[in-house]
Amino acid sequence: MIQKITFFITKCLIFFGAFFAFEPHVYAQEAIAPQTLSGLDKICAGNNFNEYFATFSYVNFPAGTTFVIELLDGASTPIATTLTEVIQLGGGQQTIKFAVPNNLVGANDYGLRVKSSTGYTSTRFKTPAGDSFFPAFFKDYEASFYINDRSDSATICVGGTLTLSVSDLTPEIPGSSPVHFPNVKYKWYKDDVVIAGQSAKTLVVSTTGKYHAEMDYGQCSDVNYGSNRVNVTSSSTGSPVTIDSSLGNPFCSNGSGTVLTATAGNSYVWKKDGVVITGATSRSYATNESGLYSVDVDFGGCSSTGTINLIGNGFNASIDVADSTKIEEGETLSVTVTTDATSPTFEWYKNGNIIPGATADTYVVTTVGNYKVKVSQTSGCVASMEFEFKVTGPAIPTLVIQNIVKLSGQNPYWNIPDAYKNADTTVIIISSNGDKVLDVTNYQGDWPQTAIDFKNINPVYYYVIQGDAGEKKGSITVIK
Q: Residues 305, 328: one domain?
């Protein structure tokens, strides 16, 4: 069903009353006055429906002015919508057809406004009930789903707990389960009564009853899209499950990590943050990562779940550069690492080779290449982490093969056009002695990476490029 939102934009002095009486200069300024929404008290978008219409009138805007519709969250932060069509109605009116973002985080306090290309924006409009806020959700998943791996029964061990999880029965099919969508929240029920405070994709139960789940899209929820119902009964056998960490908790996350060991049972299914760990079916599981770990233990006739919130006592670090950054001729790039590590050390690398003397938390890049910095904590929990980034330079003319490499320049590498940088193209470089020094596909413009022996002359190499863009041959002269 098409829903319409109607706005009226005017500059009439009488419409704004006493406000204009105190601001007589507004005759020369734009003003947007949204009217009460008609026929729309919530936005329930999804993959099956996501189109809305906003009709408004406007006067005295400069020629060429365009308009867009913006969502406003509870903090009045604007969120861009997708404009799909503009329908000119004449007489200073138009209709905008738009869609809301498919990554919209659902909430009950969204608003809507019109914004012009001149920068003028309206206030939030009101619903027919007089509210300035309304629910807006994008329903990533709209279908029935399963919990407890589709089984309608489960037996809990005496004194133990059992974890019911939203199932992903076909992980190889994208979007086949709501667990593929992190924005989805859930409502869990026991004996058809909602369980307060439970919105995750897993539920830990300790009592018998009939359980099921529904996706929680607020006022856009649909009870027809729920899970199967699981009848949880109890057993007089089995026992509670505990998980021990060989390095304790918190643990020092270095080396091979810590070994998690569960209470002995017949079979085991390990999970991290609610997701099954492929192949982790033994009593013990080794890990070097923090997270919420759980294990479902089958005792033969009943199951029980143990959990541990594993915390690493290493350190945090971040880097202030993008994965790939371009610098122009003569430019430099300052890169800084921020960390809370105790007595940290820093090692900087270029093209896999350590950079002598680069031991500070900041390094100034002057040439293109593939860079890495290793940050280490040297006291207490000895650990390290690495950050990689790439620095590129000005592009060379399309399909022109560079035949001179100047090692002292800003770009001391042999570059080739992007048309040859792909997995279907082979790049071969041969020395004047006939030795093959490079034979790769998907070449990324990073040769030479090792020292060149100049002796008494500038060495000459020969290249062959073979791929869909054709075959190219030529020579490369390397100079200091």
A: no
